[in-house]
Design goal:
The protein is 56% helix and 12% strand. By secondary structure, it is α+β, with helices and mostly antiparallel strands. The two termini are 21 Å apart. 20% of the residues are buried.
């Protein structure tokens, strides 16, 4: 029985890994779950309060998940400098008007008749509350398409490191362990 467990341990570990991935466990652990949720909200054309993500209350997890990825990946020099100076952003919103789809019935809700393109900017605000109060500043930190690409790249990176490297090391260790148990080493 012990030998059967040793031989099946590798495939069982891969199965467990993939089941956890399917149910979003790795997205939850990495915080990507909240980043994806925040990206969906930024892509929503329904407007305030859905597409406005503040750094407090119910929005805090999504805000922090997006901010982490923006800080790590943005190419916008102004935002990099502002964040390095220690300024804390208070709000993330999508800039510009959504693009109207022609030929859609007028009575449909706005989120079904408009969309944001991947080129629409994500605006980082400083000193402005979610209800729009304050005398703060706002700067473009990225485009919606860039943010989506960063989140997708992060997933591929996790898949590589967790799926390939860890599983390879485990498989090699498992083979060595089996050979030791069988007395061939």
């Amino acid at each position: 029985m012990y030998i059967i467990i040793l031989y099946t341990l590798g495939p069982i570990i891969v199965l467990v890994y993939k089941v956890l991935e399917y149910y979003g466990f790795w997205n939850y652990i990495s915080g990507r779950k909240y980043a994806i949720s925040g990206l969906r909200r930024l892509n929503s054309t329904s407007g305030y309060p859905i597409s406005w993500i503040g750094n407090e209350g119910d929005d805090k997890r999504e805000f922090n998940a997006l901010l982490k990825r923006i800080k790590r990946n943005t190419k916008e020099v102004k935002i990099k400098n502002i964040l390095k100076e220690g300024h804390k952003p208070s709000l993330l919103v999508t800039g510009g008007s959504p693009i109207l789809l022609e030929g859609i019935p007028k009575e449909w809700p706005q989120e079904q008749t408009c969309f944001y393109s991947s080129s629409h900017p994500v605006i980082m605000m400083f000193g402005v509350s979610k209800i729009g109060r304050g005398n703060g500043k706002a700067e473009k930190c990225c485009a919606l398409g860039e943010l989506e690409k960063w989140i997708d790249t992060e997933k591929r990176r996790w898949d590589f490191w967790l799926g390939v490297i860890v599983m390879t090391i485990f498989s090699i260790a498992s083979i060595i362990w089996r050979l030791q148990v069988l007395g061939k080493i």
